[in-house]
Design brief:
mainly beta; 3-stranded antiparallel beta sheet; 7 strands; 10% helix
Length: 134
C-alpha cells in the first residue's frame, strides 16, 4: 500500500509563498482537501471565479502543481474588499507509483477535482524450489 504520509506530509507552496511574497502583500492560496477513496487519492481545490481553461495542472518529479490566476474586478466606491486577485500555485508531493497520465481532472461549481488512481499492488511472486532426494 502506498503511504498516505508521503502524499499529505509535504506542502511546498507554503515555503514558496513565504520566500516570494512581501510580508504585507495578501497571498491567495486556494483551499484544498485531499483524501483517499476507492478511486484513489482525491484532491479538491476551491477555485471560485476562475475559468478552468486558465488552470494549469502538472506533475514533475513527483510533485503535483496546480497553478492559475484570478482577477477580481474592483469598483472605486467599494466599501469592503476582501477577495484577493492574483496568481497562485499549490504543490503537493504524490506517492511513488502514481502515473501522471492516469490522473483525471474535472471542474464543476468552482471546484477542481483531481483523482490520482493508486496502482494495484503487485502480487508477490512465489517460486517453488524442487527438493531432490540423494
Amino acid at each position: 500500500m502506498l503511504p498516505v504520509r508521503s502524499f499529505f506530509g509535504r506542502d511546498l507552496d507554503l515555503l514558496f509563498d513565504r520566500l516570494s511574497e512581501a510580508p504585507s502583500a495578501p497571498v491567495w492560496r486556494p483551499r484544498l482537501d485531499a483524501h483517499r477513496t476507492d478511486e484513489g487519492f482525491v484532491v479538491e481545490v476551491d477555485l471560485p471565479g476562475i475559468d478552468p481553461d486558465e488552470v494549469d495542472v502538472a506533475v514533475e518529479d513527483g510533485v503535483l502543481s496546480i497553478a492559475g490566476h484570478r482577477l477580481v474586478e474592483r469598483s472605486e466606491d467599494g466599501f469592503i474588499t476582501e477577495r484577493i486577485s492574483g496568481s497562485f500555485i499549490r504543490r503537493l508531493t504524490i506517492p511513488e507509483g502514481i502515473e501522471a497520465e492516469d490522473i483525471t481532472a474535472t471542474y464543476a461549481d468552482g471546484v477542481l477535482r483531481l483523482v490520482l488512481p493508486v496502482p494495484a499492488e503487485p502480487e508477490p511472486k512465489v517460486t517453488r524450489v524442487p527438493v531432490s532426494r540423494n
